[in-house]
Amino acid sequence: MSATLREDVERVAALARLAMSEEELSRMARELEAVLGYVASLAKVDTRDVPPTAHVVPLVTPLRDDVPAPPMDPGLALSNAPESDGSSFVVPKVIEAEEEG
Amino acid sequence: MPAPLGSLRECREALDQGRTSSAALVEQSLARAEAHAHLSAFVRLRAERARAEAQEADRRRAQGEVRSPLDGIPLAVKDNLVRAGEETTCASRILEGFVSPYTSGVLERIEAAGAISIGSTNMDEFAMGSSTEHSVYGPSRNPWDPARTPGGSSGGSAAAVAAGIVPMALGSDTGGSIRQPAGFCGVVGVKPTYGRVSRWGLVAFASSLDQVGAFARSAEDAAHVLDAIAGHDPRDSTSIPEPAPSCAAALDGDVAGLVVGLPREYYAADGIEPGVLDAVREACAQLERAGAKLREVSLPHSEHAVATYYLIATAEASSNLARYDGVRYGHRAQGAHSLSEMYERTRSEGFGAEVKRRILLGTYVLSAGYYDAYYRKAQQVRTLIRRDFEQAFRGCDVIATPTMPETAFRLGERTEDPLRMYLSDVYTVSANLAGLPGVSLPCGFSEGMPVGLQLLAPPLEEARLLRVADAYQRHTAHHLARPPEPA
User: Fold this and answer.
1) B367 to chain A: which residues are within 8 Å by CB?
2) Catalytic residue set of B
3) Within a domain: residue B39?
């Protein structure tokens, strides 16, 4: 396995917000290497002037009438929250505080 | 051991003739589910609610009100379709305890038709897998041989129908997740055209590929389920606005003059189990004897379908699964000191290895420097694959292929080799890439395990697809075979 791929996996894991042990990173890099080796075959396909398909059905933004309707009850919207204060989702501090450093 | 439930048609006829009641069918279904606990087909049963709904259905029927051909008949639902007030987990730790505030469009429809869900079925976590081995609840087992997988990701739904626990079930198909387990378990599994069935309330895996569909014991039964669930839903912006014509009404048994395309590349591929090839060739010969014409067609980009699929599916999955952050619902890691630490630990604790693997691949192919080489390239090849089908359907009405190159593999056999697990999806992923409807039908056995025949049709031609499938079943008895009863 190349050192670059191992670094890429570490970078991508951080982007995807996945904390991984050294062992897990190495295993994922090995598996990713096998999959990337397989999908590399696509490079051989001539795709000059071929438009990409993002969606198989022609995607027209569907419009509907603007009809007022009651919103979801806030209590219901919060009912699955691991932590809430009755009107908001509660999360750990977003900005690292000085006193914690 | 309670007797297996009959097909949807048999249940309906028994109800119509007053030989049984919904209450009795639901009891039989629940008892049968308990007696097959070793299959792990269900992750939870809704016994009390199902009983109450059955009484309601019996009351309706007594007053002469029958809502549809599904009314009062037991159903199983894959654990990725939400229902208000009940748990949905996608077989993931990260959604443990999640109780939806709303009900999916497809469940609204099938319940309006009177079907009664007895419970939620096992699946690969977030529908990522081909064996149900990537489930937080442990793997489901194949009723034909409990040492083998029922397939996946909708393996629990397929096993539940095959074991005679329910006559019909709902699943979802992103790369074959209905057709492959249907093939492995010897039942009918239909994946409609992309956009034909509402995905409102289907937990997203890969949004340009996901489609809800059905399992049943016959093409005729599947047509009735599809008729109940198909149609426009304004809450799903990819839902097709055109009305869905009745599939059940199209079943006339007639395939005279119909052209069945056999893709040269599929039949020439290495690695098809000989018993599978024999059964599929015999099924094509049967269609020919019934009046259809066989014609070789070409899908020249077939060899690239699996690579294209895994790049697109994982890219979309990495984006869809970004929502699991431990804030609004689902699992949250305890004791984190910062928001980013909470995100990372929540996701690492909550997702299983296969989901992490796919999120990593998807994030990788979308990341700066790799986007054009992988993701955009895959989208371009997707165009070529779609055009292959457009071209092929100029020369035929339906396409017939094996559903899988093999029969159900043994549990544990593939878990250490993710790439090999992916490669077996070679015949199913193209239908998702091209948005086509497809069905898998039982067409015999190879070394004692069921073989699936896959039929594909042009977009929106579900009625044609099921007409051919039903015609095949009028001439054959493979779909009537039942797995041995457990000792």
Assistant:
1) 11-12, 15
2) 78, 153, 177
3) yes
- Tell me the pLDDT of chain B averaged across its residues: 96
Mean pLDDT of B190-195: 98
pLDDT above 80 (res B36): yes
Does residue B159 have a pLDDT over 50? yes
Residue B157's domain comprises 8-252+469-480
CATH number for the domain harbouring residue B244 = 3.90.1300.10
Reported ipTM: the value is 0.92
> Is residue B441 one of the residues assigned to a domain?
no
Q: Which residue of A has its CA nearest to B369?
A: A8
The total domain count for chain B is 1
Residue B368 domain-assigned?
no
Nearest to B208 among A34, A55, A61 (CB): A55
Interface test with A, best of B174, B341, B363 (most A CBs within 10 A): B363
Per the structure block, which two tokens stand in for B281? 């060739």
Domain ranges within chain A, ordered by starting residue: 3-42
**pLDDT category of residue A1 using cuts at 50, 70 and 90:** low
Name the pTM for this structure: 0.97
Domain assignment present for residue B276? The answer is no
| Superfamily classification of domain A3-42 | Glu-tRNAGln amidotransferase C subunit, N-terminal domain (1.10.20.60)
> Mean per-residue pLDDT for B245-270?
94
